[in-house]
Design goal:
- By secondary structure, the chain is of the alpha/beta class.
- Helices cover 45% and strands 15% of the residues.
- Strand 6, helix 6 and strand 7 form a beta-alpha-beta unit.
- The protein is globular, with a radius of gyration of 20 Å.
- It starts with a strand and ends with a helix.
Length: 383
């Protein structure tokens, strides 16, 4: 495998940190050429010293200081809010790992596929709100998209080497999150710290809250539909608390292929970076004897209505997924700030979605306008 030049958007988050662990394991295979961060500048500075990228992107207020600190290294310092599209499209870049959160990832994602790059997205928001455009542009410019989300990576792996026309159904697994065995009547009585204590995965705060409400799984339904060109009736969600099976695909002969592995994001990240090769991760495998059993159950959409709303958004399409995502981002941020209860997140998002007039086959501008409209409507309900 030739050396791959990698850009990591959101290098100080959990995806970025794990990506750098993979790079560190195989320094002869990967070279970091770009790192970006919004807030954690201290960690970013450590990453720069260790991995010696040629390009870095930070908030505008930090640019001057970074130029001063790293002037001897000849690092080009960019504006993280304005120049990510430029960074990912650089000729020397081979792989773009998208670990940054929110719809802010859409424009650099689009720039990367238009530049024909291999894109490894952990960010699902961009695909949720503009998946049709991204997939169309990727095909047009011969870009390769290999998802890093464990569930989407699992589907990607299970479909490899198989005829897509023979696919019957995709089964997305959900751990059930921290609230799986908690009565809905107690949701608003739990402290934020409890909600953020996911039983299986270590993730950012926003995605952990979405996992607790199953909104994250709903986003994955929309994401899978776009990534794999699925029909609405080809996607099912099954709750699998052990989180060993990351997803399954069912073919028209009744055969089901599953991808299993330990709950460590380095597995799907490394698969994306080394694709089509597989290399040792240094992680322990699944001990089936110790595990004992794998259990499954249907998701309770009455207890977790966000999942049902996401299925509705997936079916309606157009600008509704953009509205769903934007309203959820605003509501979850308000929850994390202690301004609203957990159950109010859904109430706000549902009201905004039901108020929205859906634009079918939207342009990129219409998607972004819907995003902004939803944020403004959500804030009216929140503050």
């Amino acid at each position: 495998m030739a050396v791959k030049n990698v850009v990591i958007l959101g290098s100080t988050g959990s995806i970025g940190i794990n990506t750098l662990k993979v790079v560190e394991r195989y320094p002869q295979k990967f070279k970091v050429v770009g790192l970006t961060a919004y807030n954690n500048v201290k960690l970013l500075q450590k990453q720069i010293c260790k991995h010696k990228p040629t390009h870095v992107a930070v908030k505008q207020k930090a640019i001057a200081q970074f130029k001063k600190n790293f002037s001897s290294r000849r690092i080009k310092v960019l504006d993280v809010d304005q120049q990510l599209e430029e960074l990912v499209a650089l000729k020397q870049v081979d792989v773009v790992v998208i670990g940054m959160r929110s719809s802010a990832a859409l424009k650099p994602f689009l720039s990367a596929v238009r530049a024909g790059k291999m894109v490894a997205p952990a960010n699902k928001e961009a695909i949720v709100i503009a998946g049709e455009i991204l997939m169309r542009e990727a095909k047009k410019h011969k870009a390769v998209i290999i998802p890093v989300d464990s569930e989407q990576s699992a589907v990607f792996q299970c479909l490899e080497g198989h005829n897509r026309k023979q696919l019957k159904k995709v089964h997305l697994t959900a751990s059930g999150g921290v609230l799986l065995n908690t009565p809905k009547s107690r949701f608003d009585k739990l402290p934020i710290k409890k909600i953020l204590n996911h039983p299986r995965w270590k993730m950012g705060k926003k995605i952990t809250v979405d996992s607790a409400t199953l909104m994250n799984k709903g986003f994955e339904v929309i994401e899978a539909k776009r990534l794999f060109d699925l029909k609405d009736n080809q996607i099912e969600v099954v709750v699998h608390p052990e989180a060993i099976i990351h997803s399954m695909v069912e073919f028209n002969d009744g055969s089901i292929i599953a991808q299993l592995g330990v709950t460590d994001m380095r597995l799907p990240i490394q698969y994306a970076l080394t694709y089509p090769e597989r290399m040792d991760t240094g992680l322990k495998g699944v001990d089936f004897a110790r595990l004992g059993q794998l259990s499954f159950q249907k998701p309770d959409v009455n207890k977790f209505p966000a999942l049902g709303l996401a299925f509705y958004a997936a079916k309606k399409g157009g600008t509704l997924p953009s509205v769903l995502n934007a309203a959820d981002e605003e509501a979850v941020d308000a929850f994390l700030e202690g301004k609203i209860s957990l159950t109010k997140i859904f109430k706000v998002v549902e009201k905004v979605c039901l108020k929205h007039k859906i634009e079918s086959n939207p342009t990129l501008n219409q998607i972004l306008e819907a995003d902004q409209w939803a944020r403004e409507e959500a804030r009216k309900l929140l503050y």
